[in-house]
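Sample entry (150 residues):
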Amino acid sequence: MDKKLCEAVELFEEVIMYGTERIIRSFEHQLFEEYSSEQLQMLQIISKSGRISPGKLAALQGVHKSAISNRYKKLEVKGLLTTVDSEKDLRGKAITLTQKGNDVVALFNEVIYEHVENIVLNDFHEEEINEFLRIFRKLSSILKTEGDAK
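Predicted structure, serialized as tokens:
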């Protein structure tokens, strides 16, 4: 693999692995005391998917279905999630957010975006932000297309 591409992959992995956790730990907000980073990530994924099977959710979070089941139960008790019939498989179930779940995701996004905005505005020039967006839009498109092909 090309040396620059290897470095890009390594940097991407570092941002993914350390970035989210670091940002979440840097907040002093009740939201981050009430929910784990894994639970918040789960809510984000469900929000973006609309409804999702437990198996697909487990694959996206890189965990076993039992971990999803445990997280689901805790978030269901708090009124954030519900189970609905799957649109693709009449026997299957899908997980979706309740209105309260949508409200938590909206608050999470607001807090995260404000924090990231402060970092970005202080440390990046507009040209760098535009380049970042161009690259990540392209990467997102490639990854979504690759995922849809499977």
